[in-house]
TrEMBL record:
PANTHER family: CTP SYNTHASE, CTP SYNTHASE-RELATED. This is CTP synthase. Residues 4-274 form the CTP synthase N-terminal domain. It comes from the Eukaryota. Keywords: ATP-binding, Glutamine amidotransferase, Ligase, Nucleotide-binding, Pyrimidine biosynthesis.
């Protein structure tokens, strides 16, 4: 089978939406009955995203195999409903490490190892090898591979990749390779005129490096004027039909529809010789229904997200997407109240009283509280304050990873009376180490040394609220990313007071799920339920108005669902 490759590059600025456009292109092709895979290339020298601060590139997304990767792979999995592996995220660090290892083994037979041809060849080989790996449950080899090149054209670190694809287009032949260039068309407030010069310069630079874009996707705040489209066509050496406008829309799930409306399927059929049946595409029809329903929602609910990286929403991208999907599935419009956990601490009352009172006001007005994962001591006392408030006020609460661990600390301090109870991550000398470091963790190295990837959690209670939400399942498979765990030796102290560990690992040694008796909804999970599961969006399509009319799970209100359903959207119609 001859494989097709679609390369997505970006110009002018980074963060322009290449990931969403790459995901949307894949979604459209998958709706045509093709098997599609995706590769994200990050030109940084890091081996993977595991040691990044969320303020660098947003959240670290975790795959089934434990790969710590760029958040764009999360978009690929959500849009395309596929399962990717760590090798679907290619970095400069991985390529250089691979080439240097080969050189040390003597694979190059004493030759001088250079960027061209050795690095560029390694890039091409990696892409061709990974493009053949099945990402669907049926095990069929993909027919189309969408490749997103991070950063912008002209960045010095991306030059080897640009050169590799310049060579690659001739290796796989023109009819099997297509380049989509995403560029910004700014519209200054002073004139209101759409400016094409940045796009012209970006395309000129790309062409100078040996790649000619087949499609120019213009990101703009309003739809492109016809005259602007024709101007870009004339100066960038493409037909007007090859200039695609993606303007700001109410939801990212409208982007595939915008691309479809502008004839992108017909273009790919001609350009890549794709054999596609021109039949009604049910998948995109459901996307439209979902997007329309999202715009018509009237009921509102709010969730307080108490974290330490709240200045950048991408730091919690999967958490926000999971909440949005859950809200949409039960016909609610979601409002996320971002609260910097440090602003909830008593010290903030003295140093910045305005921020302190604003933070507490947001928390008190929210319908539910979510404390996500994180690392480091900063802001942890504020998270404990939020957990304490949710527990005492009977507000729906969900703690994820560190959020669960801090719920254990809060209960130990305020109910068991262990005032110094803490995690050894924050206080190694505590007399009540309720959260401890896992014995297999290597403290000398940070990268890739956590408990990572998909692991099985067994339910130990038939009356568990979370078990009901999972459809009364006996176990769940979810993705993990942590170095510390609840101290199993102290477990009985908590359960004697109604703080139950209802989910554990296969060996019964690791506490995975906590629930509090006599509370509306107080749940903590060691795993990361925000990372997608197969069929997430399909479930949303099927969960129409019928869902909001059905009786909810006993003891849980619709507003509570916003903090609950996020654990697994699939349980919505059980």
């Amino acid at each position: 089978m001859i494989q097709k490759y679609i390369l997505v590059t970006g110009g002018v600025i980074s963060g322009i939406g290449k990931g969403i456009i790459a995901s949307s292109v894949g979604t459209i092709l998958k709706s045509c009955g093709l098997h599609v895979t995706a590769i994200k290339i990050d030109p940084y020298i890091n081996i993977d995203a595991g040691t990044f601060s969320p303020y660098e590139h947003g959240e670290v997304f975790v795959l089934d195999d434990g790969g710590e990767v760029d958040l764009d792979l999360g978009n690929y999995e959500r849009f395309l409903d596929i399962r990717l592996t760590r090798d679907n995220n290619l970095t400069t660090g991985k390529i250089y490490q691979s080439v240097i290892n080969k050189e040390r083994r003597g694979d190059y037979l004493g030759k001088t190892v250079q960027v061209v041809p050795h690095i560029t060849d390694a890039i091409q080989e990696w892409v061709m090898r990974q493009a053949k790996v099945s990402v669907d449950d049926d095990g069929i080899e993909p027919e189309v591979c969408v490749i997103e090149l991070g950063g912008t054209v002209g960045d010095i670190e991306s030059m080897p990749f640009i050169e590799a694809f310049r060579q690659f287009q001739f290796k796989v032949k023109r009819e099997n390779f297509c380049n989509i260039h995403v560029s910004l068309v700014p519209q200054p407030n002073s004139t209101g005129e759409q400016k094409t010069k940045p796009t012209q310069n970006s395309v000129r630079e790309l062409r100078g490096l040996g790649l000619s874009p087949d499609l120019i996707v213009c990101r703009c705040s309003t739809p492109l004027d016809t005259a602007v489209k024709e101007k870009i066509s004339m100066f960038c050496h493409v037909e007007p039909e090859q200039v695609i406008c993606i303007h700001d829309v109410s939801s990212i799930y409208r982007v595939p529809l915008l691309l479809e409306d502008q004839g992108i399927v017909d273009y790919f059929c001609g350009r890549l010789n794709l054999l596609i049946e021109m039949r009604p595409r049910t998948m995109l029809t459901k996307w439209k229904e979902m997007s329309d329903r999202s715009d018509r929602l009237l009921e509102h609910t709010s969730i307080a997200l108490v974290g330490k990286y709240t200045k950048l929403s991408d730091s919690y991208a999967s958490v926000i997407k999971a909440l949005e999907h859950s809200a949409l599935a039960i016909n609610y419009k979601l409002e996320v109240k971002y609260i910097d956990s440090a602003d909830l601490e008593p010290a903030a009352l003295q140093e910045e009283p305005v921020k302190y009172h604003e933070a507490w006001q947001k928390l008190c007005r929210a319908d539910g509280v979510l404390v996500p994962g994180g690392f480091g001591v900063r802001g942890t006392e504020g998270k404990i304050q939020a957990i304490n408030w949710a527990r005492r006020q009977k507000k729906p609460f969900l703690g994820v990873c560190l959020g669960m661990q801090l719920a254990v600390c809060e209960f130990a301090r305020n109910v068991l009376g262990w005032e110094d109870a803490n995690s050894t991550e924050f206080d190694p000398e505590t007399k009540h180490p309720v959260v401890i470091e896992m014995p297999e963790h290597n403290p000398g190295q940070l990268g890739g040394t956590m408990r990572l990837g998909k692991r099985r959690t067994l339910f130990k209670s038939t009356s568990s609220v979370l078990r009901k939400l999972y459809g009364d399942a006996e176990y769940v498979d979810e993705r993990h990313r942590h170095r510390f765990e609840v101290n199993p030796e102290l477990k009985h102290h908590f359960e004697d007071r109604g703080f139950r560990f209802v989910g554990q690992d296969l060996e019964g040694e690791r506490m995975e799920i906590i629930e509090l008796e006599d509370h509306t909804y107080f749940v903590g999970v060691q795993y990361h339920p925000e990372f997608p599961i197969p069929g997430d969006l399909a479930i949303i399509h099927q969960s129409s108005v019928r869902q909001s009319e059905e009786a909810p799970v006993e003891g849980i209100t619709s507003s509570t669902y916003m903090d609950v359903v996020y654990a697994q959207t699939e349980t919505l119609h059980t």
